[in-house]
Amino acid sequence: REDAVGAAPVGAGPPVFPKGVVLDKDGKPCRSCTSGAAFSAWAAQTKHKVKSDKTTTAAPTTKTMATTEPAPDSRADCPPDVEILGRSSWTLLHTIAATYPDTPSRTQQADMLRFVDLFAKLYPCWVCADDFQAYMARRVPKVASRDDFGQWLCGAHNDVNRKLGKEVFDCSRWLERWKTGPKD
Ligand code: FAD
Predict the structure, then answer these.
(1) pLDDT tens-digit profile of 55-82?
(2) Percentage with pLDDT > 90 across the chain
(3) Is the pLDDT of residue 160 over 90?
(4) Mean pLDDT score of the chain, rounded to an integer?
(5) Quick one: 4 exposed, middle or buried, by C-beta within 10 A (0-12, 13-18, 19+)?
(6) Can you tell me which atom of ligand 1 is nearest the CA of 90?
(7) What is the position in ligand 1's atom list of the atom closest to the CA of 166?
(8) Roughly what angle, to the nearest 10 degrees, separates helices 126-138 and 146-163?
(9) 160 CA distance to ligand 1 middle (Å)
């Protein structure tokens, strides 16, 4: 897993990537696994390289790539980075928990288990998916009621929060955050 994160300085030899760029299994940068900032640094590095290659091989009047173009992560119509994907996914997951029945039928419980299992397998950021599956192996999803599932999901989200050095969320407030809203 360590080798999935680009950290080496830019230089000659095999491709090198700015710190924080997570590589996909094909060895190319994985956008949905990488923060917008790290991906932009890689894109800028790539542009810089294209520009300097052109400068050394082409006539001075040749158009080089603009350096004033918006960073890839600053455009609303660009593919999601790890943060946008994550925020949207947690919104979907917690909202599903908030609308899950208080007393689900056996079929609804089985459906939820299948959904979470497939979600963890299909999540587009593979490093996130691996860790989420590992979490599920340690803490089996609880689906006996809305609150059971909401609390379990809150714990799963907090596990990622801890890993990323973010604040841990108070799980007694999960329903207020995702269904009822603040009291005032
Ligand atoms: P988010 O963490 O996206 O949270 C959105 C909102 O949810 C917060 O503003 C808060 O109001 C609320 N919230 C926060 N914590 C909880 C909680 N415990 N329970 C209920 N509500 C809460 N990113 C990585 O860089 N590496 C990873 O390995 C990684 N793994 C992920 C695994 C999964 C399954 C998912 C869905 C996302 C993962 N992410 C990962 C993305 C990461 O969790 C964040 O979504 C991303 O960093 C954006 O964070 P954010 O600060 O906007 O808030």
Answers:
(1) 544 333 322 233 334 444 456 888 999 9
(2) 60
(3) yes
(4) 84
(5) middle
(6) 36
(7) 51
(8) 130
(9) 7
Global pTM reads: 0.83
Kindly state the DSSP code that residue 80 receives in the 8-state scheme.
Answer: P
| Prediction ipTM score | 0.99
Token pair recorded at residue 165? 């050095």
Task: Kindly report the backbone phi and psi dihedral angles of residue 5, in degrees, each rounded to the nearest multiple of 5, phi listed first.
Answer: -105, 120
- Could you tell me how many residues make up the chain? 184
- Spatial separation of the C-alpha atoms in residues 112 and 106, rounded to whole Å: 10
Pocket of ligand 1 (CB under 6 A): 82-83, 86-87, 89-90, 94, 123, 127-128, 131-132, 154, 157-158, 160-161, 164, 166, 169, 174, 177
Task: For residues 16 and 18, give the distance between their C-alpha atoms in angstroms, rounded to a whole number.
Answer: 7
As a whole number of angstroms, the longest Cα–Cα distance in the chain is 72
Angle value at C-alpha 57, between 52 and 63, nearest 5 degrees: 65
